[in-house]
Amino acid sequence: MGKCMIIGCGGVASVAIHKCCQNSEVFEGIMIASRTKSKCDALKEKLQPITKTVIETAQVNADNVDELIALIESYKPDVVLNLALPYQDLTIMDACLATKTHYVDTANYEPLDTAKFEYKWQWAYRERFEKAGITALLGSGFDPGVTGVFSAYAMKHEFDEINYIDILDCNGGDHGYPFATNFNPEINIREVSAKGSYIEDGKWVETEPMEIKRVYDFKGVGQKDMYLLHHEELESLALNIKGIKRIRFFMTFGQSYLTHLKCLENVGMTSIEPIMYEGKEIVPLQFLKAVLPDPASLGPRTVGKTNIGCIFRGKKDGKDKNYYLYNICDHQECYKEVGSQAISYTTGVPAMIGAMMIMTGTWKKAGVYNIEEFDPDPFMEALNKWGLPWEEDFDPVLVD
Ligand code: NDP
What we know:
Layout: E1 2-7, H1 11-22, E2 27-34, H2 37-47, E3 54-59, H3 65-75, E4 79-82, H4 89-99, E5 102-105, H5 120-123, H6 126-132, E6 135-138, H7 146-157, E7 161-171, H8 185-193, E8 196-200, E9 203-207, E10 213-218, E11 222-228, H9 233-240, E12 246-252, H10 255-266, E13 275-277, E14 280-282, H11 284-291, E15 305-316, E16 319-330, H12 331-338, H13 342-359, E17 367-370, H14 376-386, E18 390-393
Parallel strand pairs: 1-2, 1-4, 2-3, 4-5, 5-6, 6-17, 7-12
Antiparallel strand pairs: 7-15, 8-9, 8-12, 10-11, 11-12, 13-14, 15-16, 16-18
Bound molecules: NADPH dihydro-nicotinamide-adenine-dinucleotide phosphate (NDP).
């Protein structure tokens, strides 16, 4: 069917690459291009003998638009799948515009110097992508990603209007370390140490970090503490889903994680303000990342399950209705299949599916779109087929 260039070769990319290689009919060729080429070569060595997908590798600095343009022009992919870090979103979008290549990512742009999760920078590309006749699909991971597809599916099939959405992200996995993050530590800690917020009646309501706590009994996992966080898909879902009055995002955290995080915060280790150390400028959070366990190393040691989904409340045929759509994913099963834990798996699989939707022309419209703006049905089908089957509950316990 076509060729895909994958930028980045970390935890999420590794899963997406495994999945592309299982799906050679669509992904006839992939190029893995990242900062550290040896990681790309190691994956190629592992996967090329067992896949029909032709794998190429390259070194690229994705902060450099000219380098990206040259690489895209030489490989000529149908789609660029950005699985580097949020800081690279705009340079990669610029290179896609210059080469008229479709673009897919899993996280919205974030400037290095402020931990601010907003779509405004990427939405500003709408007209230019439309004029160039190419698609940018934003947020094709799990959350954002599958949560948006779930919302579009609920809207299409189960409701006339959705008034309340609670997104619940539960990780019941245990890696045995007192403190480690399941994906890029810098991005993860920036996210959880920021103020919380949710949208009510069209306005953002801000909370202190971890101020709002609830307890929920998750199927497949059990009872967990969860905390309200700001999350990027709230912004787009509040605009794209009809009738929204309130939308919130909760994530589970264990006590050990929170105690360590508080301590690291209190001593200044989570700061993103550069400091001088022995004549060299360092960012404390980036230094912390360097001493924490690499998320990729958690795969073999993580046991337990994740349960991520959305509880919808709204109206159907004039009557009140509640509906819960979720996926349960097992860390060890993911590890057996692709050598990664479930957090990378639940992001990497939808990233492959998003790229597939664009490559096959199943999703086709020029411009910059969030995932819930496309027909959810083919994506929902693909989730069942490619390892993230969903379950539904028509009488869920609600979050107060
Ligand atoms: P990793 O840190 O494991 O991987 C990032 C990769 O990008 C690394 O291979 C890194 O290279 C590469 N990279 C970083 N900077 C550059 C650059 N300037 N040029 C080229 N390559 C670069 O992160 P994850 O795999 O955990 O996360 C990847 C993305 O997925 C992030 O944007 C994250 O926010 C997003 N995400 C989304 C989720 C969702 O559900 N939507 C959930 C989890 C993550 P090197 O190997 O040299 O370090």
